[in-house]
Amino acid sequence: PARRTIRRTVHRSACRIGHPAGRGRAIVRVLVPGLVLLLAGCVDGPGGRSSADPATPLEGARTASGAADFALAPEVLPEGAVAPPRIDPGRSYGLPELIDIAQRTNPRTQAAWHRARAAAAGVGVVEATYLPQISANVLAGGVRTSTPEGAVPPVLPAGRLTAEGATVVPNLALQWLLFDFGRRDAARQIATEANIGANIAFQGLHQQVIFEVASGFYRYNAARADTRIARARVQDAATLRTLAAARRAEGLGTEVDVAQTRQIEARAVFDRTLAENRERDARARLLRAMGLSPTTPLRVADIRGRSLPREVPGDLDRVIAAALERRPDIQAALAQLRATDAGVALVEAERRPRVLAVGEVGRSMGRLTLDDTRIPGRARLSSSRTQGAVGVMVSVPVVDGGLRAAREEQARARAAAAERDLEALRTLAATEIVEAYDLLRTSLAAHAASGPLLAAAEETWRAVLGFYENGLASLAEVSIAKTALNDAQMVREDAYANAFVAAAALAFATGELTSRDRAP
Length: 520
Description:
Elements: H1 2-17, H2 20-42, E1 92-93, H3 95-105, H4 107-127, E2 133-149, E3 159-179, H5 183-249, H6 255-290, E4 299-300, H7 316-326, H8 328-349, E5 354-372, E6 378-395, H9 403-469, H10 475-509
Parallel strand pairs: 1-4
Antiparallel strand pairs: 2-3, 3-5, 5-6
Helix pairs in contact: 1-2, 3-5, 4-5, 5-6, 5-8, 5-10, 7-9, 8-9, 9-10
InterPro entries: CyaE (IPR028351), OMP_efflux (IPR003423), TolC-like (IPR051906)
Pfam families: OEP (PF02321)
Organism: Rhodobaculum claviforme
């Protein structure tokens, strides 16, 4: 269709091309529409790529069996911006040292820092609008005009005057917004609150990293303790199997007793395997919280012997009231609320006029050639002149099709939503504090109760084992006593670690987990 249109245009213009006066106009009439149609004809769809259908890979790759292969080509990943920390494989790192490493190397803290810097630069962007803007401009181009001229009888016949040449116009332009009746002030308030919110998020993310590392540290210690208990259980099961075999050799036991001990030992090995897997998972979670590779050769210090928190805070209402003033998420929500209020002021200010001071100074330089078909020869002119202007411009919005009214409604809705979000966040924060408070109180009580439980289980195990050695207890009773002892040991270790985790959770929920020195 594009080619047929071009041919029709050429045919209509062919009769005019032979005439000197119409030759230029005919060429323009042919070339310009033709060029536009040719360019439009080249655009036949999107320039990107996609698969043929939802079940076909991008390149149509297939496996040897004919199945669709959705594998991706390897990508070269960029080097990390932060060098990994130097870890001494022979050193055991305590919780403060782990927190310090995490705060320096975790990519999330680095990203939050860059976002805070970007928000700070955003304030500078708005403040720059209070100052005059000066730009240097250069306009260069060519001009050609051709106009018919009537006859001046009897001096000149009718003809055509053609002027063509080139012009260069360098200038300096000034624009200074003098008054906007609060628009820039509102924009600066929005940028300032965004900067405050980004800084609060940066601080809050560090608190979150401290909590995640502390929680991972204590949970890893609990998992490691469970592994120690599981390994000791395997050793005890092996000892029990040896004892059963000796009793059978002396005629005091049976083959069934020996088989049962092998079953007990196999179950102990199975439980040890699961415990070791849980320990590896807990270690990986700790390293992930620190922002380190899961293969980092890091030794973690043991927490055995550390004193538990003695008591929980007494006045919970006062704790909640003080915590709501410190929590980063509450402060960030307050900054967002102030920013949305400033957004309402911004769109309201858009209804008011703007007053600008404008000015321009420059120089116009050019050469012009004049050709008059009525006069032989050509005339060449050169010009160079300084030009400038200064004034005050007032811009008043008149009709915008309801755009400003819609933007005002949108801004007020956002402000109302931010206010409701703050209320919901206050309720959520109070709930989290109460939950952490109850968890700490329960964990301390559970640890206190696990002491007598463990003591009773140890006493029962020693008694039953002695009875078994003297033929006064069955193997089933020995197995039950040993399982109860292992369970009591794990309960004790888990309650011990959970108390520290609960203390860290309460400190985090109340906004007090602000440094490695504040970690429990």
